[in-house]
Amino acid sequence: MLYRQDAIVQTVLVILTMLAALALGRPAFAQSSLDNLRAADSQREAGSTTVLGNDNQFLSVGSQAMLAGRWEDGIRLTLLGLERPGVNDYMRAAALANLCGGYAALEQVDLAIDYCTQSIELNDRNWRAWSNRSYAYWLMRDYELAGEDLEVAASINDRARQLGRIRGMLNEAGLVPRITMEDRQ
Amino acid sequence: MNTRRAGLAACVGVFLLAGTFAHARIEPVGVWSCVLYGQDRETDERMLLDFRPDGSTRLARLGSQDTQWVPISQWESKRRQMSFHDSRSGRSFQADLDYLSLGGVWDDSVFTGGWWCAPLDERPDLSPSSGSFKEYTVMPPLVVDSMASPWYPRRAIWTATEGYAVVCFLVTPEGFVIDPQFLELSDSLFELPALGALQRSHYKRWDESLPNRAACRTFEFNLDGKRY
């Protein structure tokens, strides 16, 4: 197999996707102040009813499918969701980052990188997109580019646990141990 | 591989515990053959130390043709610590009497290092009239038969952690390593690998009538490449 993936990586992707799912909105019982702002934007654009939280079921269900590890379903639903009207740049960036994560999980790294790049072009402050692309580069064994994206993600949110995991994977891949011993007698 | 390492860890644990539970506080009175190491390899020495019940201390440096006893400062023992001073070298010595053998750290306000000793059954006669003193009778030459390498802990690679360890121990006439004691350890991650390597190491045998030999081994763990 050209690329390798283990349980840690799966966990990284799940958590990344879960957090992205929060950004895409949830059923009406869950609402954040940020979602309210996004809803207001949608109202201004659409000029119609207020959309609360679950304004794009495909994006929402798509992200939940990815959380459950159903990557193909998640990708399919997210792509459908992106075709629907009323998707603002913030939601689009998050959805693209999700697609990146999904394709990376399927080891289709070229597609993953492409979607992460699109996400970054919309919102370069989304550390998850940088983090996902870093992981995709790691899959490609391009550790230099993976490290560069990791540093950008860390400059936005250094406390993210996922970054620590990617950092560890890069260290494992790139660092060569050297042990010196000497008897003192 | 993980099962093998778990088994090795268990053996090392027994190796450690056996020494710990069988160990009583060190009584410094007596004669000891010691190795002394420093940050600079040039400071490594072999010597004899004689601690008398009246508090007097004598030192004899080995490795020269004229080995003789030289009096140094009184030794003192307070709680679990022992101390004495060698005015000729300017070194102050401290020992932790809870260690598995006699030893500890030294410093001379510029350099620092460690020292480790093996007990001798009798006080060697270094006087010229006794005939020529043979160093090997108190400190047999230590020749490595097999020196095992430690593994680099995966967690240390993960976190890009480098470090070092200095372990002192005794070697029996059969060449086995016993009573390992860490004098320096930069990170606990390196404890098990260092001990495992020691446990798998072996020295060439010598005459069983000769005593155990003190020695120390330094381990340096480094990582090459870009770290994140």
Your description of this structure?
The complex is a heterodimer of chains A (185) and B (228). By secondary structure, chain A is mainly α. In chain A, 69% of the residues lie in helices and 5% in strands. Chain A is built from nine helices and one strand; from the N terminus they run H-H-H-H-H-H-H-H-H-E. Chain A starts with 6 loop residues before the first helix and ends with a strand. Mean pLDDT of chain A is 79; it is low at 1-5 and 25-53. Chain B has 228 residues and is mainly β. Chain B has helices at residues 2-21, 154-158, 191-199; strands at 30-38, 45-51, 57-61, 70-72, 76-78, 81-86, 91-96, 103-107, 112-120, 144-146, 163-171, 177-185, 202-203, 213-224. In chain B, strand 5 and strand 6 (81-86) form a beta hairpin. The A-B interface holds A 143, 147, 150-151, 167-168, 170-172, 174-185 and B 35, 37, 44, 46, 142, 144, 147, 149-150, 152, 154, 157-160, 166, 197, 213, 215-228. Strand 1 of chain A pairs antiparallel with strand 14 (213-224) of chain B.
Oligomer: heterodimer
Order of helices and strands of chain B: HEEEEEEEEEEHEEHEE
Mean pLDDT across every amino acid position of chain B: 90
Shape, per Cα inertia axes of chain A: elongated
Question: What's the helix count of chain B?
Answer: 3
Strand order, main sheet of chain B: write it out.
4-3-2-1-9-8-7-6-5
- Proportion of helical residues of chain B: 10-25%
Described by strand count, sense and barrel closure, the largest sheet of chain A is: none
The portion of residues assigned to helices of chain A is 55-70%
User: How many β-strand stretches of chain A?
Assistant: 1
Q: List low-confidence stretches of chain B.
A: none
Secondary structure layout plus pairing:
The complex is a heterodimer of chains A (185) and B (228).
Chain A (H helix, E strand, L loop, with lengths): L6 H17 L9 H14 L10 H11 L3 H13 L5 H17 L3 H14 L4 H13 L3 H14 L4 H14 L1 E9 L1
Helix pairs in contact in A: 1-3, 1-5, 3-4, 4-5, 5-6, 5-7, 6-7, 7-8, 7-9, 8-9
Chain B lengths: L1 H20 L8 E9 L6 E7 L5 E5 L8 E3 L3 E3 L2 E6 L4 E6 L6 E5 L4 E9 L23 E3 L7 H5 L4 E9 L5 E9 L5 H9 L2 E2 L9 E12 L4
Antiparallel strand pairs in B: 1-2, 1-9, 2-3, 3-4, 5-6, 6-7, 7-8, 8-9, 10-13, 11-12, 11-14
